[in-house]
Amino acid sequence: TYSVTQSWAERIYATCPSAQGLYYISYQYGPKFAVVLLGDRVPADVFDAQSSRSVVDAICHGAIYTLADDLS
């Protein structure tokens, strides 16, 4: 549950100063993984785009469709 994940994140934040986040199997979306980033411990540019693709490109369109299907 999210409250348990939050408790883990808080404990790890307090006791592991080098930790930047959590990577775990999501109960809600298992066996898919989820990531929790500890905002003040990751680089400011962590969410900057590394690359871009046209959404009309067949490969990109397929990836979007697969992601949407995974998210129901």
Description:
By secondary structure, the protein is α+β, with helices and mostly antiparallel strands. The chain is 38% helix and 14% strand. It has two helices and two strands. It has a two-stranded antiparallel sheet. The longest helix has 14 residues, at 2-15. It is flat. The model has no long low-confidence stretch (mean pLDDT 83).
Question: Strands, helices and their partners?
Answer:
Blueprint (H helix, E strand, L loop, with lengths): L1 H14 L5 E5 L7 E5 L20 H13 L2
Antiparallel strand pairs: 1-2
List how many beta strands DSSP finds: 2
The pLDDT mean sits at 83
- General shape: flat
Sketch the major β-sheet: 2 strands, antiparallel
Q: Please work out how many helical segments DSSP would assign.
A: 2
Content-based structural category: alpha+beta
The sequence of SSEs as H and E is: HEEH
- First-residue to last-residue Cα separation: 20 Å
The portion of residues forming beta strands comes to 5-15%
Strand order of the largest sheet: 1-2
Low-confidence stretches: none
Radius of gyration: 16 Å
Into which percent range does the helicity of residues fall? 25-40%
